[in-house]
Amino acid sequence: MDAARKLGLSTVADKALLAQAQERVARAETLEQVQHIVRATARSLVDAQGATVVLYEDGRCFYADEDAVSPLWKGQRFPVQQCISGWAMIHGEPAIVVDSTVDERIPQEIYRPTFVRSLAMVPIGGAAPIGAIGAYWSVPRAIPQREVALLMGLAAAAYPALRRLLPGGGTPLPVDLREPSHHA
């Protein structure tokens, strides 16, 4: 379980949760199964009120699936430069938002009517992201590093399954949109 150690997961329980998620995602036979496993696992791992799977598609972030206490953005597409999931993909790192009402990366007109007040969004695919996993909470809160590490581990597990099941292996974010330090 070297991946768990690299992510800073130290407890046996964390490692077991991540290993179980990796096994389930690897056995998935359809894109819908992968998305369901990832969103449900993300929500459960970090005790979130919502979770989403976002895929990069032709300059847009496609909110492919979600599991939340109330509907959010499932089925919608947003320009990659105007979306927090796009920010995570462009920067190749987690986007941590403690309070969505004051974070300048958050499009207030889209978030204000929702329950989302804090979130963590992690890229799927490392240096060549094909999507992101998001977790949402209804109150402003600091996101513990353990939770970020669990989501990153889940993203690492989801990547090969999504590459296997997406048409053409998925579309990575173009190099010219990525931050220079994250070019493949």
Automatic annotation (TrEMBL):
It holds the Pfam family GAF_2. It comes from the Bacteria. This is GAF domain-containing protein. Residues 29-158 form the GAF domain. Signal peptide: none annotated. Coiled coil: none annotated.
